[in-house]
C-alpha cells in the first residue's frame, strides 16, 4: 500500500528530526546526533520486530529507513537554527508518524496472531519506544510517560484497529481510519493542551 | 505445575505494584503507571525469552500476565494511598516473585541447553531486569546494583537449581527448594538489613 | 582465526575492566560491579546477535566470554586502587577491543547478507552499545555520544571493512587492516585529544 509507505517515510523523517534535535539540545557531537535520530525513528519498529521474532528487523531489509534517518539527522545538525522555527510543521509530521507507526505495528502483530493486548502493545511500542530510548540516552525520564495525550492517542488507534480487524472490515479502510484517528487526536491534544490524569503524590520526598 | 504458576502470578502482581508505585513517585501519568507496571512485572522474562531465541516472548503466548499487570497497575493508580501502608505484604509477595522468577528463568535456560553461567544469568535476569528497566525509565541508577542482598539471593537460587538439576534431582523438588531458598534469603536480608560489600572509592569527585 | 580470537578476548577483558571501574565510581556493590563489567564487555555483541536473529547470542555458545568478564570484574573490585594507576595500558587494550569488536560485528553482518549501512551499524554497535548500556545503568548520558573520536574510529573501520569485502579482498587481510585502522585512529585521538564537531546550541536553558 503506497500511501501507507509514504506516510511511514514522512513519519520516519519527523521522528529522526525530533531525535536529532534532542541530541543537539544535550550538546552531543555529530555521532550522537545520528544515533539519536536513528534510534528515535527506527527504535520502536526494531523492538517490535525483535518481540515478534521477525529478524532481522525491517530496517535491515529495506535500508531506505536508515538512509533517510541519517540524512535527516545530518540536515538537522547543519540547519537546526532554521528548524527550531518550524515547530508547526514538525508537530504535524510527528503526528503523522505516530498514527502510521501505530497501525503498522498493530497490524503486523495481528498478522503474527498476537492476542488483543499484545497487538495493541505492539502498535503503541512501534510509535513510542524509539522516543523512550531517545530520552533514556539523553538521561531523562521519557516524556511520553509524563506529559500530554501522546500515548493514549496511540492506545485508541491500536484498540480501534484491532476491533475493526476482528469485525472483518477491509484492511485498507481499517488502517486508514485508525491512523487518521490517532493523528486527529494527537493534533487536538496539542491544540487544546490536553493531559492525562496523575495520581496526586502529595509533598512527600522522593 | 500449578503451584509454580500460582506463585508466578503472585510475583507478577507484586512486581507490577512495585513498578506502578515507582511511576507514581516520579509523577508519571496513568499511561506511565501502566508502562512501568508492565515493564517491571514482565520485562525480565521478556528479555530472557529474547536471549533464548524463544519468540514471541511468554507474555504474548499467555496474555494473563499482561491483563494481570495492567489491572494491578490501574488499582495501584487508584488506591496508592492505601497501598503505601501495606509495605509488609508487598515485601513478602515481592520475595515470592523473586524466588519464582529465578527458578523459572534458570530452569528454562537449562532446558535450552545453556551452560552453567548462562543458566544462572537467565534466572537472575528474569528476576531483576524488569526492575532495572523500571529504574532506567525513572532516570535512576538501578536499585539492585547498589543496595541490599537482592540480586545475591537470586544468584544463590540460580546456582543451587543448576547444581540440583545436574545432580539429577527430581525437577519439582529442585524448583521448589531453590525458590524457597531465594525467598527465605530475601526475607532475612530485609529483616536484618544485610548488604553487600562495596569497593571503598574514597572522596573523589565522580 | 586465532589472532582475532585472542584480540577479542583482550578487548573483552579491557571492556569488562572499564565497566567494573564505572560501577565502583558509582558506588555500586559487588553485584553491580559484575553486571556492569559483563554488560560493557558483552552487551554490544549480544545486541548485534539479537538483531541478526542469531540466538542464543555468542556469549551463551562459548561461555569463555562470561567467565573472563566476571573474573576481570572481581579482580577490578579487589584491586581497583592499583588499576586506576594503569590508565595507559587500559587505554591501549580498550582500543584493541574497539578495533576487534568492530570488525567482528561488521563481518558477521556481511555474512548474514546485511546491506552497507546495516553492516557498518552492526560493527559500530558491537563496539559501542555495551558502553552505552553501562552509561545508561550509571544514569549518565553515554560518553560515546558526547566525547572524543571514539565512535567515528569505529565508523571508519566498519566502512573500510565493507568496502574491502565488496572489492573481494582476502578476508583475513581485510579484517586485520580494518581493525588496525580503528586501533590506530583511536590511539591517535587519545594522544592528540581530537574531538568531533558539535552544533552550537547557544546558551538556552535545557
Number of helices of chain A: 8
Distance between the termini of chain A: 49 Å
Q: Strand pairing plus helix content of chain A: what structural class?
A: mainly alpha
Average pLDDT level of chain A? 90
Chains forming the largest contact? A-B, 32 and 31 residues
How would you characterize the largest beta sheet of chain A? none
Give the ordered list of helices and strands of chain A: HHHHHHHH
How many structural units, i.e. domains of chain A? 1
Task: Classify the helix fraction of chain A into a percent range.
Answer: over 70%
User: What oligomeric state is this?
Assistant: homotrimer
- Global morphology of chain A: globular
- Beta-strand percentage range of chain A: under 5%
Structure description:
The structure is a homotrimer of 206-residue chains. Chain A is mainly alpha-helical and 206 residues long. The first copy, chain A, has one domain (2-192). Chain A has helices at residues 2-25, 30-52, 58-61, 64-83, 87-111, 116-137, 151-166, 171-192. The radius of gyration of chain A is 17 Å and the shape is globular. The relative contact order of chain A is 0.14. The A-C interface holds A 23-33, 35-36, 46, 50, 55-57, 59-60, 63, 66-67, 70, 77-78, 80, 136-139 and C 50-53, 112, 114-118, 121, 132, 136, 139-142, 144-147, 151-152, 155, 195-199, 201, 204, 206. Chains A, B, C: Keywords: Cell membrane, Membrane, Transmembrane, Transmembrane helix. Chains A, B, C: The chain crosses the membrane at residues 65-83, 90-110, 116-137, 149-166, 172-190. Chains A, B, C: InterPro entries: Gly_transporter (IPR005115). Chains A, B, C: Its main location: membrane.
